[in-house]
Amino acid sequence: MRFDEAYSGKVFIMSRPNIEEADAVIYGMPMDWTVSFRPGSRFGPNRIREVSIGLEEYSPYLDKHLEEVNYADAGDIPLPFGNPQRSLDMIEAYLDELLEKGKFPLGLGGEHLVSWPIIQAMYRKYPDIALIHIDAHTDLREEYEGEPLSHSTPIRKACELIGPENVYSFGIRSGMREEFQYAKESGMHLSKFEVIEPLKKVLPQLAGRNVYVTIDIDVLDPAYAPGTGTAEAGGISSKELLEAIHAISASELNVIGADLVEVAPAYDHSEKTAIAASKFVREMLLGWVK
């Protein structure tokens, strides 16, 4: 998929037709090749686009309208089914193109492993990068059942690449004992259960830094987001995640890109997960794209 190739199907609401002229580019990563429980997140990106038609273009939270942001939806990267390494290579190559063109990348997953090649590309362009990770799961395993390419490993890989002291995880409520021990001993910043208060405490420390944000929809309680592969009870509400997005918007961070992953429409019978995800994407566009 070339940088300037537009998707011929559904696009996110109010997407501009010209990718070359856009400031931000939405792109999909339809991959769920390594999931350990329920597959189906490869259908997430397109469903988020489809339900976005029900959004208002205006955000009363930010007093901004989508017409104020110049963004294009490039569609899904055509990832080869069942081939994790080739898929990751394609995502990384596409991100290299976006960054070379000076675009703000906003990715839609797909399983959480898709964030790993994005972080690699980001790190090459921004060696001082910090990572904000909002999720139910630690994702700090080195491997899963002997396989290092797993949706349970991207944050561990990120720690080893950019330094654990530059990784900030919020909302975590599930993981192996060894993962929590690694977080404690490595110097990374891991906040269990909550997002808002620990995030607001950290944001001043990150002022002026280049920050990438990755959000796993399963940080929400299953009552708010049942449509995900590995739902985890005890999560935050949609309102709290909106507040977190807005806190980042109001901060002095330089957000250089973001992704939203793990929406799985097959388990989302009321579509509340996809509807919430599309609203989060709207707020990210309005609050984070400069």
Automatic annotation (TrEMBL):
Q: What class of enzyme is it?
A: hydrolase
Give the molecular function GO annotations.
agmatinase activity
Which UniProt keywords are present, listed alphabetically? Hydrolase, Metal-binding
Checking Gene3D superfamilies in the record gives: Ureohydrolase domain (3.40.800.10)
**CDD domains according to UniProt:** Agmatinase-like_2
Record-listed E.C. numbers: 3.5.3.11
Question: Is Lyase given among the entry's keywords?
Answer: no
Q: Which SUPFAM superfamilies does the protein's record reference? A: Arginase/deacetylase
Top-level taxon = Bacteria
Q: Which family does it belong to?
A: Belongs to the arginase family. Agmatinase subfamily.
Q: This chain belongs to which protein, by name?
A: Agmatinase
Gene that encodes the chain: speB
